[in-house]
Every structure is written in C-alpha cells, then in structure tokens.
C-alpha cells in the first residue's frame, strides 16, 4: 500500500498537517512478521476473553444500566487522558511520530463532552479515578516515561478497537439507553476527522508495520497489548461489581443471544464472531458456515441476520 501526500480533496483521505493523507484502495500485502499481524494473532486469546466478560456480553445484548454506562465513560476519560498526555509528550519520538494523529484519534475532549451531558457543567467535580482503573492509568504513565515505544501497543489496542467494535457499542447504547439521535452522550464514538474508518485503519496499520523494530521489541509490544486487554478486563470486572450494588432497572433492548450462548462446545470455528471475521477476510468457507449457523438457531434467525454485519465490524479490528 502506498501512502501519498496531496493538497487535493480525495475520498478515503484524512487530514493531517494541512494536507490530505491518501490511502490507496488496494488491500495491504501483509507478512506474518508485520507488527499488525503479530498483534492480531498474539492478542486473539485476550480479545476473546474480553468479549466474554459478563459486562461486555450484557452490553452487546443491550442490557445496560445507565449508571454503569456513565461509570464506564468516566473510566475511559481517565485512560485516554493518560494515554494522550503521554503521546503528546512523546510525539517526536521516532517510533511514535508515524502514528501520531491527534486530530483524527484523540478522545479526551469528546469524552469530556459526554460527561458534561451525563453530569452537567460541573462534571469534573463529580468523577474520580477508581481502584479498577488506576492500575491501567498508572501503567500508561509508566511506559510513557520509561519505555515510550510501548505506547504503540496501548494506542493500537484502544484506537483500533474504537474504530471497529466501538461503532457497534455506540448503536447498542444509543438504542438501549434511548440517547438522542443527534449524538449527545456518544461523542466518544464519533471520529469526525476520519471520513473512512477502513481507509484510516489501513493507513494506521501501514504506519505501524513500517516502524523499524527488532523481533524482541515486537514481542514486547504483543505482551504489552495483552497487558492492556487485562487492564480493560479489570475495568469491566469493577463495573460488574458496581452493577450488583445498584438498584437501577436494567434496560434490555432485546438484541438476541450472547457470544458464550452461541459458542457450541467452545469450538472457535462455531463462533459467529470468528466466522464473521473470516468471512470479512474473504474466506468463502466461513461465509457459508456463518449462513449455516444462522439457520441452525431458529430463535436467532431474524436478530442474528441483522447482527452479521456489525459482528464482522466488531471482530474486524483484527483484520480490517
């Protein structure tokens, strides 16, 4: 994939530094040793564990407590504030500069607007860093100060997930919590500086894969990305515990079955997330398998048919 700079308006471009970054429409020619491929393969197990956290399964089913959604937004605010603070400090680092896209990616201000919607103008006095989120924030500051290259793992894990699965969560939350169609409370999911999510993700992966890294550093980045998934699961677990103590009625949007329920005997090849991911990569075998799975689940036929497209996006941050 060739990356070019031009001042002319083009489709699938993103602005940076007054120019337009053009991503060729051709798919990347990837190698198993490319960082993006190593991260996708090396974090697969952690990703699936995160998907199977009760909080995530409930969220995907539309079973969301408004209070928990607000608490989750708070946690994200502290995580992104830490990450973007450290990225700013290290923006001229040779391994950070190529993936430095503050206009397109940074989420702190968007999260602030969401918190103002939920809590009012004095929202900053009403939020606090919780015990479940603090280790995540502390680790980001630690690597930013001592080992900035590891910020690549944290940036990839969060931003690429936000551009893929995050778009599904936005739709689920908007419907389940009856949030305004104009986007209030969901600014976090709005990437106004990106005109094509797919095109930007191709660009971002290309920039990552061009970083001059030895095999040991790539392994450390995979380890750090797995660690980031672990921190996210700590946040999910804390939210689950908070949910047990709240008396708010769960708003159930009735979005069908959970990931674990559809997993038949734990076989990943029978998992619709995995089949959708493989179908999205162009594998006709898995496209047929996905269709057959829908036919074998009568209660899910209508709901899952609608979910196929979004499930492909949720899993596609591995591939797309």
UniProtKB/TrEMBL annotation:
Keywords: Heme, Iron, Membrane, Metal-binding, Oxidoreductase, Transmembrane, Transmembrane helix. The chain crosses the membrane at residues 302-319. The keyword Metal-binding applies. It comes from the Eukaryota. It holds the Pfam family Heme_oxygenase. Gene3D superfamilies: Heme oxygenase-like. One of its GO terms (molecular function) is heme binding. CDD domains: HemeO. One of its GO terms (biological process) is heme catabolic process. Its EC number is 1.14.14.18. Belongs to the heme oxygenase family. This is heme oxygenase (biliverdin-producing). It comes from Amphiprion percula.
């Amino acid at each position: 994939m060739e990356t070019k700079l031009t001042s002319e308006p083009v489709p699938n471009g993103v602005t940076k530094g007054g120019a337009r970054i053009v991503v060729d429409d051709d798919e990347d020619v990837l190698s198993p040793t490319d960082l993006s491929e190593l991260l996708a393969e090396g974090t697969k197990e952690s990703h699936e564990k995160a998907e199977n956290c009760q909080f995530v399964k409930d969220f995907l089913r539309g079973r969301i407590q408004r209070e928990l959604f607000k608490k989750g937004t708070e946690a994200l605010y502290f995580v992104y504030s830490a990450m973007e603070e450290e990225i700013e400090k290290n923006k001229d680092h040779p391994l950070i500069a190529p993936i430095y896209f503050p206009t397109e990616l940074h989420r702190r201000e968007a999260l602030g607007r969401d918190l103002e919607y939920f809590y009012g103008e004095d929202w900053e006095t009403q939020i606090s860093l919780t015990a479940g989120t603090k280790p995540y924030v502390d680790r980001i500051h630690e690597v930013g100060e001592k080992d900035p290259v590891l910020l690549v793992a944290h940036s990839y894990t969060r931003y690429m997930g936000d551009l893929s699965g995050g778009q599904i969560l936005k739709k689920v939350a908007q419907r389940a919590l009856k949030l305004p169609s104009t986007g209030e409370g969901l600014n976090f999911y709005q990437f106004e500086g990106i005109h094509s999510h797919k095109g930007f993700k191709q660009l971002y992966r290309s920039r990552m894969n061009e970083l001059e890294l030895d095999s040991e550093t790539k392994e450390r980045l995979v380890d750090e990305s797995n660690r980031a998934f672990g921190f996210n699961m700590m946040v999910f677990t804390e939210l689950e515990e908070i949910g047990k103590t709240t008396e708010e009625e769960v708003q159930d949007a009735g979005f069908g079955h959970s990931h674990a329920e559809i997993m038949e005997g734990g076989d990943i090849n029978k998992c619709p997330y995995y089949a959708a991911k493989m179908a999205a990569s162009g594998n006709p075998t898995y496209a047929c398998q996905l269709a057959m799975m829908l036919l074998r689940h009568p209660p899910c036929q209508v709901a899952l048919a609608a979910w196929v497209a979004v499930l492909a996006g949720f899993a596609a941050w591995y591939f797309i």
